[in-house]
Write a structure and sequence with these properties.
By secondary structure, this protein is α/β, with parallel strands linked by helices. The chain has 16 helices and 24 strands.
Length: 486
Amino acid sequence: MLAGTGSDVGKSILAAALCRIFKQDGYNPAPFKAQNMALNSYATPEGLEIGRAQAVQAEAAGIPCHTDMNPLLLKPNSDHTSQVVLNGKPIGNKNAYDYWRRGTSEIDFRGEVCKAFDRLATKYNPIVLEGAGSISEINLKDTDLVNLPMARHADADVILVGDIDRGGVFASVYGSIMLQTPEDRKLIKGIIINKFRGDMRLFDEGRRMLEDICGTPVLGVVPYFKDIFIEEEDSVSLEKKQRELAEGKVNVAVVLLRHISNFTDFDTLERDPRVNLFYTNNVADISRADIIILPGTKSTLDDLLELRRNGCAQAIQRAHREGKMVIGICGGYQMLGQTIEDPDGIEGTIARLPGLGLLPIHTTMTAEKKTEQVSFQFEGQACQGYEIHQGVSDTSKAIMQTDHCIGTYIHGFLDNAPVIEYILNEKGKDRSTQGSLCTFRSKKSEKLATALSYADFKQQQYDKLADHVRQHVDIDKLYQILSSDD
């Protein structure tokens, strides 16, 4: 188990690295996270829903993803409530307080996640477990499903991951270990320091000091990297991404929604050398962009209301009238329609809102969720994606297109080269008359990032990640720990 001193210390990425390393070394690994809280989810081949991180880790391990890898998924739809997805299917919304007071639930969540792990362990070895947040939240210890209680059930060796980039790594590592019971403390067999910047030799003495005060070996110090691209699950870094418009590129504005989900939809487009992609809810940024994308959201009506309040809705409509391309994905697709209705209060208290009126669809929210992997044709070429959404629109089309506007329920839509080529070439046709900031460069003028398929690109990145971690983590020592009877 990779456990953490806190959230966003790099557990998910390191778990993907270990899945790849074990696969490269001839083993048959699989990822597991008992409980995940994320809006970025994925559809399994069976048409069920899991956290995106475990889908990525399964891909690194070279196996199909399955709900047993993430049996419990919480999808926040407000500060106080989350949709609970159990074994791939939503079972309703839960108030956070009631959820954590597990004695009030008729469902034995601990039993469910343990059974999922047991099923997985009959098929794969080793299992790479991932903890959640900090392992030292002692006020939640009795209801914790995902950290050391899960490690005890799995008889897992725990490797504690600390983030040196945020500071205080000595206190966070030492405190995380010392706040455990003596029995749980024995489970922690190693420490990995993550996100190091600078000269590694400067931490040699710190490494020895950490081992002395904790009585636990430091297995590695992993440098921060910028040249390896692994899909992220958390949206905490989106606002930090580039927000400036760029000369000579297609400027793509992804509207930054409060409940944005599946933002990995834009990773391929962001890597294209012709594109400058940024996230914003600034009206001026939207008005100056060449392409505007409304992404998926866990709370479509709430986010649509906010777009009307902050002026973004009007900016998108105005940009469309001026000939700018507007693309809506999943919840963004619904927002581009004529109306969205929620008569049964599936999402909350907003019963009905007018959409942006750019597409001729009407949507009604329903309790049933659609989750499936899909194939589709675009510009005569075969493409792949997946759907995860609630709400039924009065059209059979998963993709709808009008002048300067595309809407789709398909996540991964922009991972397909024919789609990217179409939208960029369409903007190239318009650019000479619109006085855009951008000068379009045809696909003949430069080697495209899309020349390498997205699937092949991701496999290449997993190998680079494995090489990076092998270089800085003592994998032989890790194997010794895993082989020990202690």
